[in-house]
Amino acid sequence: MNPSGGLLWHWRAWRSQKLWRSTCEQISIWLEQVHPHSSELILIGASAGWMMSSPWLQKFKKVMVWDIDGLAAPLFRWRHAAALKASGTELVFNRADALVNLGGLLSAHPKACVLFDNLLGQVRFHSLDLDVVSENISNIIRTLKGREWGSLHDTYSGPVDEALSSQNLPAKQMRMQGEPDAEKSDQTWFQKLGAQGEWLDHLTSSVFDTGTVVHHIAWPYRPRYCHWLQAGWTHA
Ligand SMILES: C[S@@+](CC[C@H](N)C(=O)[O-])C[C@H]1O[C@@H](n2cnc3c(N)ncnc32)[C@H](O)[C@@H]1O
After folding, report:
1. What residue owns the CA closest to ligand 1's atom 12?
2. Distance 2 CA to ligand 1 centre (A)
3. Does residue 2 fall inside a structural domain?
């Protein structure tokens, strides 16, 4: 059983395209501001690229995708292959676990930058021991040292008081990781989302190093249940 992908995920993503439209637009705006130095991309956890922007992928000469989900490759091709063909971008799909030997994967592609595409927040669901989860995430970050990389991931998720939709979604917010007012800015963001009750911590709040520009994006996963996405890019 794949806790963060598979048929259920594709079904939900397909059905939620209207509900998720503003979130996808905000992700796309963030990506437009990311100008990678590398012409090769390692894209981890791409799934079908339901929330991914084709124009951003078109910037690369080569996009190498990793996902453990067997449906990811055909659906990703269905959604993005025509655009990538138009830009002459080579697309290589690997149905494999990218985390089991991330160091080896990076060594095999020394010049590629890396994007974790809504995956690091799911590491939480692969172990019941939260210390193990935090250690696993820290190990991933350590392995990336010296590499150009970015991530879009869940930070927290939980119920909201009012149904969020593409119409009333709060606009993307930015802050610097580790800035003195970070906690205050995060509280304001929680209020903007209309957070209620208990929220799940995805244990990703320290993925980015101090000084990284971090973007907060609201994702109305279901009408009254929202994910707070965090996005950032680290130049080597
Ligand atoms: C929430 S989905 C990503 C959504 C995707 N970025 C999109 O726009 O549709 C997380 C994906 O990560 C994949 N995944 C989970 N663990 C993985 C691993 N260790 N290596 C590669 N892919 C993994 C899952 O199969 C799933 O497709």
Report:
1. 45
2. 9
3. no
Q: Is residue 1 part of a domain?
A: no
Evaluated on CA atoms 69, 137, 231, 190, the torsion sign reads positive
Whole-structure pTM value: 0.96
Which atom of ligand 1 approaches the CA of 48 most closely? 9
CA of 38 to the centre of ligand 1 (A): 22
Mean pLDDT throughout 1-9?
Answer: 79
Distance from the alpha carbon of residue 230 to the mean position of ligand 1, in angstroms: 16
Instruction: Copy the structure tokens of residue 52.
Output: 């991914």
Q: Where residue 55 sits, what CATH number does that domain have? A: 3.40.50
Contact, 175 vs 185, CB < 8 A? yes
| Count of the separate structural domains present in the chain | 1
Average pLDDT over all residues of the chain: 94
Kindly state whether residue 157 falls inside one of the protein's structural domains.
Answer: yes
Q: What is residue 149's three-state secondary structure?
A: strand
Q: In percent, how much of the chain has pLDDT > 90?
A: 84
* Domain interval for residue 90: 7-234
Q: Residues near ligand 1 with C-beta < 6 Å? A: 2, 4-5, 9, 13, 44-52, 66-69, 72, 97-99, 117-119, 122
- The residue assigned the tokens 């989302």 is 193
Q: Is residue 116 part of a domain?
A: yes
